[in-house]
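As promised in the previous annual report, we have extended the structural survey to additional targets. Below is the entry for CARD domain-containing protein.
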Amino acid sequence: GATKSTTVELTSQKIDKKIASHVLAENISSIIKCCKEFELTELAEKFMEMHIITREEMEDLVKNIKKNSRRMNIYQMKQLLKQLERAVSFRGEIFSWFLKILEDYDTEASQEVARKLEADYEKMCPSKP
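The corresponding structure token record, generated without further manual editing, is:
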């Protein structure tokens, strides 16, 4: 029978990994603002599922969130996003996957950031003939 896929359906467009990782780097502070602290755990779990971070890294992060200060959690979010950026520089389609995560959060802020990332990406892509 058919196996059930748990991965997000990606767009058919081929993602330019260099442009996508640049767009993420430029927008890290916007992404951090839209992802509330309690979402850090969920984000870490999703990153582990996509092999962006290891299970140990995810478990350490989750364990530390509760005892960390807000500033430390923001630092950890930055580290997580840097790993995302690195992963996108190897596999461009992870950018589409991350946009889908932001859209699925279904908050005004996350939707806005997803639109901005997509628009920035489109702006930087060489126009098609």
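The chain is about 70% helix and 0% strand. Confidence is low (pLDDT under 50) at residues 1-10. These points will be discussed at the next consortium meeting with the crystallography subgroup.
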